[in-house]
Amino acid sequence: MLTNRQLQILQAIVDDFIMFAQPVGSRQISNKQEITFSPATIRNEMADLEELGFLEKTHTSSGRVPSEKGYRFYVDHLLSPQGINSRDIQQIQSIFNDRLVEVEHIIRKSANILSELTSYTSILLGPDVQRHRVKRFSIVPLSSDAAVAIIVTNNGHVENRMFSLPPNFTASDLEKMVNILNERLVGESLEDIHKKLEAEVLTVLQQHVQSADDFIRSLVTATMHNSESKVFYGGKTNMFNQPEFHDLNKVRMILDLMETTSQVQSLFHPNESGIHIRIGSENKQLEMENCSVITTTYSIGEEQQGAIAIIGPTRMDYKRVVALLDVMRMDLTQAFTKNRSD
Amino acid sequence: MLTNRQLQILQAIVDDFIMFAQPVGSRQISNKQEITFSPATIRNEMADLEELGFLEKTHTSSGRVPSEKGYRFYVDHLLSPQGINSRDIQQIQSIFNDRLVEVEHIIRKSANILSELTSYTSILLGPDVQRHRVKRFSIVPLSSDAAVAIIVTNNGHVENRMFSLPPNFTASDLEKMVNILNERLVGESLEDIHKKLEAEVLTVLQQHVQSADDFIRSLVTATMHNSESKVFYGGKTNMFNQPEFHDLNKVRMILDLMETTSQVQSLFHPNESGIHIRIGSENKQLEMENCSVITTTYSIGEEQQGAIAIIGPTRMDYKRVVALLDVMRMDLTQAFTKNRSD
DNA sequence: TGTTAGCACTCAACTAAGAGGAGTGCTAAT
DNA sequence: ATTAGCACTCCTCTTAGTTGAGTGCTAACA
Predict the structure, then answer these.
(1) What is the pTM of this model?
(2) Mean pLDDT of chain A, nearest integer
(3) Among B106, B115, B219, B240, which has the minimal tally of Cβ within 10 Å of its Cβ?
(4) Min Cα separation A136/chain B (Å)
C-alpha cells in the first residue's frame, strides 16, 4: 500500500507530466504549493515509486515519467471528479440550440465540439441500425430491369439498395411483393429480417411471384451490407499537436487504423455503461500503444445505443476528458429521449 | 526556344528528380544511356536552363531541381503518352468484376485502387445529385408529429430527410400532398425542384392542405442541404511516404483541407473534359503549394458527371498518373453508360 | 566554334570534442 | 525521519574540422 505522501507525489508527477510532457524532477515537484517536503525527500519517494513500477526514467539522470501502471493507478485512485468550466458547458449546449431534428446532425456536431474541447480525436458511433424496426418497405422500379428497395425504420433512418429485376417481372408482381413484405416485416428489427426473409417470406413469395428467389437473395445482402453503425470523426489531425506524435509513422498508423471500420469498432465496449479507459498497451491494437482511449455510451430513444470514444496520448488529460464525456453522454441521452416517440 | 539538347536534358532532370527526389547533378545525367555529352556540357546547359527559369538550385553548389515552370514545361511538352502495365490494367478491371450494381460501390473501389496504383491520394466525386431527376416522391409518417420525405431519382439515388409534421395533419392530407408532389415533380431535376416547389407547387398545395407552407419550407431545405456530390477518398495517408512531406505541418494542412468540403470541391474543374494538371502554386489553396493535382471527369449515364483528382507532390509521376487516369476515366464512363437505361 | 578536361571553390552533412545544466543517488548532518 | 551537500550521469547544445558531391570558369582540344 502506498503512503499518503507517495500518493500525493505520484499525483503531482502525473499531473505535471500531463501538463508539460516533460520528465518531472524532484525540484519541480517540491516547488508546488501543495508539496511541503524537500527535493531530497521526494527523490527518495520517487525511487520507491519507481521500484513499485509506477514511474520510469528516460535515462539514468533524468526526471520521472509515469509508467502505464502509474497512469492506471492515477486513473483508478487519484482522479478526483472535476466540474467543468461553464464556458465548456455552454459550448456543448450549443449543439442542441438549432433544434436539429436529425440524429445524424447532432452526432456529427457533437464529434466536432468534443474534439475541439479536448483537442484530441473523437469518434462517435451513431445508433446501431440493426436494432431499428422496419416502418415501411417499398420498391421503386427504375427501368425494366432495375429497381431500388427502400426500408424506412422507426427512427427515420432510410436504408436503400439497388438490385436488378428478373426479366418478365411485371408491375403487379412488384406490388404483390411489396405488400407481402410489408405485411410480414413491418415492426421487425433489421437484424431479424434476414432470418425472416429467408425462412418465412421466401416461401410465401414463391407462391405468388416467379423467380423471387434471386430477388430475396439480393435483398438479404442489401440489408446485411450496411449493417455497421455510422461513424463520425472529429479532429482527426488533432494528435499532430501532441509532442509525442511528432513521429510521422505513429500518426500514420493511427490515421490508417481509423479508416478501418473493423478496427474502429473494436475500440468500443458495446453494452457496457459508464466510462471506460484503456491505457497504452491495454488497447488490443499495436498501433495504439502510445494512446489512451476513453469510451462511453449514450442512449438514443428507448432501445438504441450510441458510443463515444476519445483518442489521445497516454499522457492525456484524463480528468478533463472524463468530465466532458460525462456531460456529453447525459446531454445526448437527454436530447434523444425527450420528444421522441415511436 | 529551347534547343533539342536542352529539351533532352530538362526531361532527363525532371524524370530523374521524380524518381529519386534528390537534386540531380551533371554527372548523374551524363551517365544515362540516352545522354552522350559530358558533364561539363550539361553544366553549361543547366546554367542556361536555370537562367530561363526551368531549374533551381537548393544552394550554390547543389544539383538542380525542377522549378514549377520546369514542371509546367515538362507536362506541356515533354510528356510522351505512355501505355500502362498490363498488370495495372488488370487491377483496374477488377473493379468491375463483381458485377456491382451500385454506382457508389464502384466509385469507392475505384478510389482505393487508384490510390494504390499511384501511391498518391485520390479523390473521386460521385454523380452530381442535383442533376438527377425525380423518379418517385414519397412520405412515410413515423409518429403523429414526424415523418420522412424520400426522393428516389432516376439513377437509383435515394435522398431522404426527416421533418416535423404540423399538428392536426391527417393521413389523407399527407396522401393528397404526396400525389400532388408526384404529379408535379416527377421528371424534374433536383436542382429545378427548389424553384418549382416554391413557385407552383406551394400554391396548389395550399388549396388542398392546411399549413403546407411550413412543410414546403422544410422540404426545400431538405433537398438543398445534401446538394453536394458525394466524395470518396483513397489513400489519405499515402503522402506520408513522400519525402517532401516528412514535415508534419504540411501533411496536417493537406489532411485538414481534405476534410473541408468546399475546399475539396474547388480542386476540381467542373464541366471541362480532358485531363487537367495544376502544379504547386497554380492551385488556389496555399496549403497545396507543394502539391500537384491532376483531375479529370467521367460520365455517369447520359447526363451525369463525376470527377477524379489525384493529389501528390509537385514531384509527381505525371506520366503514369495521366495514363492511369485516362484508363480509369474511360472504364468508368463505359461501365456507367452500358446497361443503364432511364 | 562547340565540346570537354581540369581545377578551385562552395556548402550541406557528418563526426568529434567539449561545455553546460538538469537531475539523480548517496552520505552525513540536523 | 528529513534534508543539505556533493559527486556523478547523461542529454543537449555549440564549435570546429573533415568529407564529398556538385558547381562555375578557364583553357585546351577537335
Answers:
(1) 0.90
(2) 89
(3) B240
(4) 7
